[in-house]
TrEMBL record:
SUPFAM superfamilies: PLP-dependent transferases, Winged helix' DNA-binding domain. This is PLP-dependent aminotransferase family protein. It comes from the Bacteria. The keyword Transferase applies. SMART domains: HTH_GNTR. The lineage of its organism: Bacteria, Pseudomonadati, Pseudomonadota, Gammaproteobacteria, Vibrionales. Coiled coil: none annotated. Residues 3-71 form the HTH gntR-type domain.
Length: 444
């Protein structure tokens, strides 16, 4: 039985619970009957019920059956945006992760000790850094160990530390021509000149990077090799080697933002593997588990590690040991990896829905985002505005633009809409707006 199948079935059952078809305290149909209803097998239903029980959505009693638990044991009231259709936030599908994070936090809270409450030498406890090493290794990073890996509050925090350490005000930094707004905000805040490297469907191209180096002499290159935000581009291993070679040839620093590496179906070698002495590798649990954990992992060359650590200590002194203890628990039990796989499968399922509803056969998409091309920036803004009037939230492409001209796109994040039926509903509404754009006189 495929992993995806029982998760999808569990989600369908959950949607029926939310829509009131199976009210609180009601008994769910026996496996065989539910299997007929959802056109699957009783074994798949049994696995789906187990998953829902792990999440605290239902409770099973031997000989009596499976019952729906009260919703407020599970989930808070939906946010304002969730009452509409939120395609604007890049985060995992949190209802899937909540019960597992709760369980890990409860264990951490039960075992909380003085060592976790005090100031700790270096960046956090050894066991927490070992968990960080395991996380990054699972998704393709080689050479990490507790001496070269530091704990931060997320990739954004790591980027901020490294830009402050490796560059000065006014310096140029090479980034993808379309990048995520946090990167642009950081460049502006620190007074670094971001210069955009042109991209193709594999992300930044080595030719454009060489040109940017020749024209702007950046000190640092920042690259997102997997499921780049916003374009969804993923680099092949060959492209990773080529980018590493350009960085090495020009004796620059590489900052590898691997926030989405866990979305690759198989681990792919990090760019940093090819130039470990010139590269810092950044990842976090924000996109696989939850941004609220504030757990980032930073691997740096040994030649830099003391300086990065000094910056870290000047900046926050110590990243949250309690947060990292939770991360460590989730990684140690294997739940973190299972949840990451669940998010990857869900992203694939949601991509398939979006491709079908929006008719995207000819467009390259992947990961958490759709980077949807339109005729003009005017059209992109019109779409964002009209969608907002219907409580559909998305972002116009110019928010992601480093080097003009902006691409005429909007970005849809697929994972924060609360259910697949709602996702489909929101996409159908968007498609109607797109249809009216196709036949309207709005400048293209
Ligand atoms: C490419 C990329 N890097 C970094 C971040 C921030 O990650 P974190 O929450 O770990 O700071 C984001 C958030 O959207 C992102 O898209």
């Amino acid at each position: 039985m495929s992993e995806t199948k029982f998760r999808l079935i569990a989600r369908k059952i959950e949607e029926r619970i939310e829509q009131g078809e199976y009210p609180t305290h009601s008994k769910l149909p026996p496996h065989r009957i539910m299997a007929d209803v959802l056109e699957t097998t009783p074994t798949t239903i049994a696995k789906a019920y187990n998953l829902l029980a792990d999440k605290g959505r239902v409770e099973s009693f031997v000989g009596r059956g499976t019952f729906v638990k009260p919703a407020n044991d599970v989930d808070p009231a939906p946010s304002l945006a969730e009452q509409g259709f939120d395609f604007s936030i890049t985060q995992p599908y949190l209802p899937e992760n909540l019960p597992f994070i709760k369980k890990a936090m409860e264990k951490v809270s039960r075992n909380l000790n003085l060592q976790q409450l005090t100031y700790i030498e270096h960046s956090g406890l050894d066991a927490h850094r070992q968990a960080a090493v395991e996380w990054a290794k699972r998704y393709g990073l080689e050479g990490g160990n507790t001496d070269n890996t530091l704990l931060t509050h997320g990739v954004q925090h790591s980027l901020s530390l490294l830009l402050t350490l490796l560059t000065s005000e006014g310096d140029c930094v090479a980034v993808e021509a379309q990048t995520y707004p946090g990167m642009i905000a950081l460049g502006e805040l620190l007074g670094r000149r971001l210069v955009g490297v042109k991209m193709d469907e594999q992300g930044m191209t080595p030719q454009s990077l060489k040109q940017v180096i020749a024209e702007h002499a950046p000190k640092v290159v920042i690259a997102t090799p997997s499921f780049q935000n916003p374009t969804g581009a993923t680099m092949s291993v060959e492209r990773r080697q080529q980018i590493a070679q350009v960085v090495e040839d020009h004796q620059l620093w590489l900052i590898e933002d691997d926030a989405f590496g866990f979305l690759n179906p198989q681990p792919v070698a990090a760019i940093s593997n090819f130039i470990p002495q010139r590269a810092c590798h950044l990842t976090s649990l924000s996109k696989a588990l939850s941004p609220s954990l504030n757990c980032g992992f930073l691997k740096a060359p040994l030649s830099l590690i003391e300086k990065v650590n000094a910056h870290l200590r000047a900046n926050v002194y110590l990243s949250s040991s309690v947060g990292h203890a939770t991360a460590c628990e989730l990684i140690k039990t294997g739940d973190a990896f299972k949840l990451a796989s669940g998010q990857r499968e869900l992203a694939q399922a949601r991509q398939a829905i979006a491709r079908q509803v929006l008719n995207l056969a000819s467009i390259h998409t992947g990961g958490y985002h759709i980077w949807l091309p339109l005729g003009s920036q005017t059209q992109a803004h019109w779409l964002v505005e009209q969608a907002r009037k219907q409580n559909i939230y998305l972002r116009a492409g110019d928010q992601f633009t480093v080097s003009e001209p902006a691409q005429h796109c909007v970005r849809l994040s697929l994972m924060s809409v609360s259910s697949e039926s709602k996702l489909t509903q929101g996409l159908v509404m968007l498609n109607t707006l797109l249809d009216s754009l196709r036949t309207s006189a709005i400048a293209s």
